[in-house]
What does this fold into?
Amino acid sequence: RLHVHLAVRNLGEPEDRRYADMRRRHSPGFWWKSFFIVFVLQAVLAWIASFAILGAMGDGHLAPVAATGVLLAVFGFGFEALGDWQLARFMADPGNRGQVMGGGLWRYTRHPNYFGECCFWWGIGVVAISAGAWWALVSPILLTALLLKVSGVSLLERDISERRPGYGEYVKNTPAFFPALFPKREG
It folds into this structure.
C-alpha cells in the first residue's frame, strides 16, 4: 500500500528535500554512508518488523483474540488508506496549495496515516499473541516508536509550520497521533 501511494504521489516530482539534505550532510562518501544509514538500517528494521508476522503464523486457529487482531489490522489499513486518499485529493486541488488539510480523518488527527499504520501492526501483534508469540510484540513497539519519535510524526512536524501558514492553529486544535473523538473545531 505504501509503495503504491508513494510512487503515485512522487511520479514526476522533484527529489524529496530530505534526501537532498541527507546527501549534502553526508558528503563526501555519501554513497557508502547512505548504504549503511538508509539501506542496511531499513533492512534490519524490516526484519524486526516481520517478527509480528512470523509470530502470527504459529498456531493456525482463529481464536477470539486473533479475530480481534485481524479486525484491528483491517481497521488500521483502512484508516491509513482513507487518510492517504483524502490527502491526495486535497493536494490535487491547486486551490489548496500551501494550505493545511483539516477535513476528513485529518480533522481528528494530524497523522491518520501513521495512526492507521500503527493500528495495522498492533493488530498483527495481537494475532501473534494469540499464537503464543509474545516476543513478536517487539515489532509493533518498534514501529510505533519509530513513527512517533524518529521518522514519522516528529520528522514531519519539525518544519511544517514554516511551509504551511495555518499549521500552528491546526496543531492547537488537532491531536498529533491518537484521534480525538470530539475535535475542538469545525472542519
